[in-house]
Design a protein that fits this description.
The chain is an alpha/beta fold. The chain has two domains: 9-130 and 287-303, Rossmann fold; 132-285, 3-Layer(aba) Sandwich (Rossmann fold), CATH 3.40.50. It is 35% helix and 14% strand. The chain has helices spanning 14-29, 53-64, 86-94, 109-114, 132-146, 163-172, 191-199, 233-239, 281-286, 288-303, and strands at 42-47, 68-71, 99-104, 121-126, 151-156, 177-182, 205-207, 219-222, 258-260. The strands form two sheets. It has a five-stranded parallel sheet. A four-stranded parallel sheet has the order 2-1-3-4, with helices on both faces. β8, α8 (233-239) and β9 form a beta-alpha-beta unit. α1 (14-29) packs across α5. The longest helix is centred in the N-terminal third of the chain and has 16 residues, at 14-29. The radius of gyration is 19 Å and the shape is globular. It starts with 13 loop residues before the first helix and ends with a helix.
Length: 304
């Protein structure tokens, strides 16, 4: 890796992405061979927002690399509750660990925090900004199921507040991919993300109905309408449950369509879809461990 920190998918080239994915494939094929690579090293976890998959998979990844973790714990049980600033917390924890993982509700928090530390820092989600490690495991899952070139990908749901969407859309500009974005008018891609995509040479195709594009898709990436991001509960209620996928919906899809979701889901994908060949979202979640093992291995290898 050519980077000290991983803050946004926009900093990743195709070469960077393929380096991580190729290392993840090595991990997947023989995880035991990576078991002592980082013995004695510590990963600091600073999660200011709830997390299941991201936090647990980072912890599992570090331990499977032979290292261990130090965990700030919940905001309520930390000195953040006493008013400690992010800069001070991150300075302190960086003195305990060889690398840091930060999740924070404010967009740009990871970039700011990175200015105060001398160890690699990974952004595990900054508000409605970016989630680059989710993007790497998304890309790994796409590559394993459909390849990463000459694809048509639909991204559906909360495109306004969805950090997983923003990261994935930016990363996909490194590949020969046609991107379609499906959302209610009120949850369209932010202007800043559309600008970034245009600057990268991507054509942004936006739709309000999945039916308009479903038969063309190789991959459908479904996202949750994120209640916690809405400043107004009434705004959330107007769009909640508007986009839902079930077996009847997928009748118009190609037989080899791959359906992904960063999870957690609420009601946007019916449980009956889990039993179809389309469903790859649990495989996607499981891929968080080999991909994050690969990323940590590369970051710590470069920092050795």
């Amino acid at each position: 890796m050519r980077h000290d920190h991983l803050l946004t998918a926009k900093q990743l080239s195709r070469e960077d992405i393929e380096t991580v994915l190729d290392r993840a494939a090595e991990v997947d094929a023989n995880p035991a061979s990576f078991g002592e690579r980082h013995a004695g090293r510590l990963l600091g976890l600073c999660f200011y927002e709830p997390s299941t998959r991201t936090k647990m998979s980072f912890e599992a990844s570090m331990k499977r690399l032979g290292g261990d973790v130090v965990d700030m714990g919940s905001v309520e049980s930390s000195s953040v509750k006493k008013g400690e600033s992010l800069a001070d917390t991150i300075r302190v924890v960086s003195g305990y660990a060889d690398a840091l993982v930060l999740r924070h509700p404010l967009m740009g928090a990871a970039k700011m925090a990175s200015e105060f530390v001398d160890v690699p820092l990974v952004n595990a989600g900054d508000g409605a900004g970016h989630h680059p490690t989710q993007t790497l495991l998304d890309l790994y899952t796409i590559r394993e199921n459909a390849g990463l070139d000459d694809l048509t990908i639909g991204i559906m749901g909360d495109l306004k507040y969805g950090r997983t969407v923003h990261s994935l859309a930016n990363a996909l500009t490194n590949f020969d991919v046609r991107q379609h974005f499906v959302s209610p008018e009120s949850l369209k891609l932010p202007r800043s993300v559309r600008y970034d995509l245009h600057e990268a040479g991507a054509t942004v195709r936006e739709h309000t109905e999945l039916d308009d594009v479903l038969p063309e898709l190789d991959v459908l990436y479904v996202t949750r309408i994120q209640r916690e991001r809405f400043p107004d509960e009434n705004e959330y209620q107007r769009v909640a449950g508007e986009y839902q996928i079930d077996e009847a919906t997928l009748a118009a899809a190609r037989d080899d369509l791959t359906v992904l979701h960063p999870l957690p889901r609420v009601d946007e994908i019916a449980p009956e879809v889990d039993e179809t060949d389309h469903a790859k979202y649990f495989e996607q979640a499981h891929n968080g461990v080999p991909v994050r093992m690969a990323l940590l291995d590369l970051l710590l290898e470069g920092d050795a």
